[in-house]
């Protein structure tokens, strides 16, 4: 433990030293003409412009380690000018036309923090955090821009069990996150049953994360909103890339079809069904170690045949109809398959064979049409279809017993948006959204014969509107809106107010206040811990008028930030209450495992971040404190008790270094243990059940993990570049217990089961981009 504290102290000391050593740095603005000369020398390019175009414009110096594309992007943001790349050497600078300036007003949100943690991650004045995977460089433990791994580096976001598919935002469960991919609501987010993001990282360009103060156009997710979009502008030239790591191979391409159309393709497939790596062994051990597949009791395993694979495919069609209208269409498919065949002897020395199979499939499609009308009016129409299927089969060949389970979700959506620019500092947004969600649950048993089939449908209508205002000084940003939802089956009409306020207090200080009320009609529940082979045991379920009401949330937060001399310090406090949750949705593995009740949880917490950039170094420390308590009227005698996913203290310290074509990242992750329930000291063996003490009254040992990664870029030939990356997750092979529960064995003796985190997990990647 002393070594862990020493590592954390080292990072504290590093950041403190940086602040002292560089507190006198000044970042005075310089004339644009001088900055352009410096850029020409560094990148061997030439700017073409009329002198009057850049007269009187001064901006802050740019980071010298930025790529040319990043430099152009920053210049566009800082100068409000057009920068058009004419060739590899020449760049034209022109003033924006009135139409372009008016169109720019359509997006009043501005970036207030560049390089929030590292390059490619920014924070805007409306409270959202945006990640640009093209500009993204490196994070500890990552060698590819894994969308949902990047998100977990933000304060207040963590996965208590290391699964991508179980992201917890400010104490919320994973099913309370609204995750949109190109406007398609996603019900599956991970490969390898949650350990790898299912979104291809090489077409996914923009990620927007909202922890609070969500725009009124988004609904049906009470915890957070994560919107993922692919490249949305025509590239006008063919480009692509192929690559692979120790789990999969992938490729992507951007293919212009004409001056107005383009096709984007991306595909990835694992080779884990034909070739096994150490990375695969580590992942497989993490997911299946304590599942039903690995439980043979007193039986002796004689043979095992396992095959696992995953793949995904994405395609996007872009059509710029004319200068004022465009059309976009997307399709995607995600697939996980596990085949697990066991042969073993029973305690009576008989042979027994079981064949198990688990499939997880998602398909989605969306289409979007947008047009800019006269009088500063923008309209758009979007429709989508999302389908998710999880099915498991467990076939005992010897006894001729077959168990089949299926959970299917079908989601249809339609949304109209209208925005109107009222003035240079005022904008109005409003629209309508319709959704129809159907959920089917099937359980079919042969020998004995039993079949259960349930299907439910909910249709919802929503009207939303919001007004966005900037002060004339551009120091004050305010967005206020509301969403009116009507759920026809439940006959409930609900109003959800939302607001976001950002105030520049001085040159370096900003104040931010966010708030929202949201509702959700679909959640995940666990009927039995052994469902779906004990791997993906959660099933989606719709709200009803009986025992599953609409989940409702209220949240408010206030924060202040200081940003100067490449030093960012931010502190944010929040209060969050989520009501109408069911005990089944919380996955209890104690005395409440088979009890259902309706209750709530309340989270109070703070998120702290300090980030310092020094030349080629970026170092940051984040810390989150929260207190997350349940309250159920009929559980624990009505007394509150800690939430199952309550991590009171979470800390991350990281350091990244970027020099020329080499990047390296090193990070330490620590958090206090999650709560669990211990058995009572006195057990009544005649009950044949475990008797427990106070719920969630004890905590697991603290979690500690150290990661490292490195990437090297180089050119193979003109227009062809390559990347080599290597990473090690949990480099000290720390044994972390992420969950603990108790059960009875075949002889009714009490046993303790500890779910362990990923052990040391290396990975290696190689890519070619052209």
TrEMBL record:
Q: Where does the record locate the signal sequence feature?
A: 1-23
Listed under GO cellular component are:
cell outer membrane
A Pfam family (short name) is Plug
InterPro entries from the xrefs? Beta-barrel_TonB, Beta-barrel_TonB_sf, FecR_C, Plug_dom, Plug_dom_sf, TonB-dep_rcpt-like
Which of UniProt's keywords are assigned here?
Cell outer membrane, Membrane, Receptor, Signal, TonB box, Transmembrane, Transmembrane beta strand, Transport
PROSITE patterns in alphabetical order:
PROKAR_LIPOPROTEIN, TONB_DEPENDENT_REC_3
Q: Where is the TonB-dependent receptor plug domain?
A: 146-221
> How is it placed in the membrane, per its record?
Multi-pass membrane protein
Location relative to the cell: Cell outer membrane
The TonB-dependent receptor-like beta-barrel domain extends over: 547-722
Protein FecR C-terminal domain residues: 29-89
> Please, which domain of life does this record's source organism belong to?
Bacteria
Give the family per the record.
Belongs to the TonB-dependent receptor family.
Q: What is this protein called?
A: Outer membrane receptor for ferrienterochelin and colicin
